[in-house]
Amino acid sequence: MAILIQFAIGLLFGIGLIVSGMSNPAKVLNFLDVAGIPAGTWDASLAFVMAGAVAVTFIGFSRVLKLARPFFADRFYLPTRKDIDSRVIAGPAIFGIGWGLAGFCPGPALTALGFGSASAFIFVAAMLAGMVLARFVAQLLSSTRFVAPADPLET
Amino acid sequence: MIITPFTPIASLLGGALIGLAAVLLMWATGRIAGVSGIAARLFPPYEDQEFAGRLAFVAGLVAAPVLVRLVTGSLPAQTIAAAMPVLIVAGLLTGFGSVWGSGCTSGHGVCGLSRLSLRSLVATITFMSAGIATVFVMRHWG
């Protein structure tokens, strides 16, 4: 049952990506192209995606987190780290370059697979390789330190 | 480049659906709907009891266009302009960077900002700035 629910939630997330326009890299790149503001080609839509998503999540999280526990789990697993380390800047900087090159971030890239284009498959294959590499490198580094956390990239 | 129309209402609505999905995942599993984290944890060395659930979530993401096409008879435009070498480099950077920085647009951008996390705010400002700078260099330099 929990598996089916998670499939449905992924489906809903993907439909949101499609309806919002995030699944179209051209739209993403036109949003990131701030030189398009004076030129009149800027597509501000993605600011509305973010506004809609954050508004619903902000209200929804505050309600859900008042519950004693999640429906299918024994507790909430919330990120606990608050420090600004070099990884939380270097990682997004690297990710942002990739995002600006192709117009895909991880969610829309996975949803793009269902559109059936070869380009999306190539991007996703490279993306998954990059993800595995990052975890591998992080684990390699952490095993040489005194304290090795169970999951070095836990948020 | 292709001019894309400004779609504030569809984007707001789609964004709200993304938010709803994030809230439902928290309600159901108690976990952050961060796509990079969920996808990366499908692979070794990561190991726990949540594999099937993560795979189901990712399968839902991939199945969404199939369902939309079945119901509406068509899919909205999707233009991937990047050539193959660029796609590969971009994919590697996107995958590496999002995992290295513990999150992407969904984990840091949507969920993190909604939890008023300073780490996520820093991450979001950083990937937005890097994305803007990259598009500027690609489109307007040289």
Attribute tags:
heterodimer, A: 155 residues, mainly alpha, 65% helix, globular, B: 142 residues
Largest sheet of chain B: none
Largest interface: A-B, 121 and 116 residues
Give the CA-CA distance, first to last residue of chain A. Answer: 27 Å
Runs of chain A with pLDDT <50, length 5+? 146-150
Q: What is the oligomer described by this structure?
A: heterodimer
Strand content of chain B: under 5%
Q: Largest sheet of chain A, if any?
A: none
What coarse outline of chain B follows from CA principal-axis ratios? Answer: globular
Number of helices of chain A: 7
Q: How far is it from the N-terminal to the C-terminal residue of chain B, by CA?
A: 16 Å
Order of helices and strands of chain A: HHHHHHH
Structural class of chain B: mainly alpha
Which consecutive residue ranges of chain B, at least 5 long each, have pLDDT under 50? none
Shape of chain A: globular
Class by helix and strand content of chain A? mainly alpha
Mean pLDDT of chain A: 92
- Helix-residue proportion of chain B: over 70%
- The SSE string of chain B, one letter per element, is HHHHHH
Structure notes:
The complex is a heterodimer of chains A (155) and B (142). By secondary structure, chain A is mainly alpha-helical. Chain A has helices at 2-20, 25-32, 36-39, 45-64, 87-102, 106-113, 118-142. In chain A, α2 (25-32) crosses α5. Chain A is globular and about 50 Å long. The two termini of chain A are 27 Å apart. With 142 residues, chain B is mainly α. Chain B is globular and about 50 Å long. Chain B has 6 helices and no strands. The two termini of chain B are 16 Å apart. Chains A and B meet through α1, α2, α4, α5 and α6 of A and α1, α2, α3, α4 and α5 of B.
